[in-house]
Queue: 2 jobs
Job 1
Amino acid sequence: MKIKAFFDIVGTVLKDWRVIVTLVAMLFVMGAANFILKYKKKPKKAKKQKAAPPPPKAEEKKEEKSEEEAKE
């Protein structure tokens, strides 16, 4: 078989509508399978609760003590 005849046969096969439809169907199936394998549900978000105020810093405590000492 000569190279030119080989490429003619390959070109004819690749241009056939059944080969094209099969290729498109396989790409669709592979894409769907990839989506299913990588799909992860997002965790449910908990309702936001009002956060308690942050505890006073050490500097603020010292200032409060010094103010109390000044009052006495």
Job 2
Amino acid sequence: MANSDKSIFEKFSDWSTKFTGSSYAFIGAVIIVLVWAISGPVFNYSETWQLVINTGTTIITFLMVFLIQKAQNKDSKAIQIKLNELIAANEKASNRIVDIEDLTEKELDQLHCYYEKLADFAEEDDDIHTSHSIDAAQRNQDHKDRVFRKRHEEWLQQQKQKKESI
């Protein structure tokens, strides 16, 4: 995606996420706290003096929660897409796992139990390379291959018909 395709908010949030995670931002925060602490005697450690740091840190924390969540959502989405690509590319992986993040908590718990059971089977085996899902994965891959070939043939026929009609 080209950088110019990003909205102003997207550009700002990317910049601010990088900046706030930098050494410069940490050093800046330390300097602000030191200046505030050193200025205490000048303001007689008044309630207003305390209110300045409390209000400032509260506002910054409030805004950072949303900024961090946005960055986390973006990173999570990118990771999910990468994992989905790996699952789709692996001939022995089940495509049913793609987009499982959309499942309910109960459905995820059921899948978790299934994989725990697979792990138990694997622990019982003498050969650590034995897989209990190879047969299912092979059947799944064969089905995926048949469906792909069928759809590809249909697409080729449609392309041929388009060329003939022109």
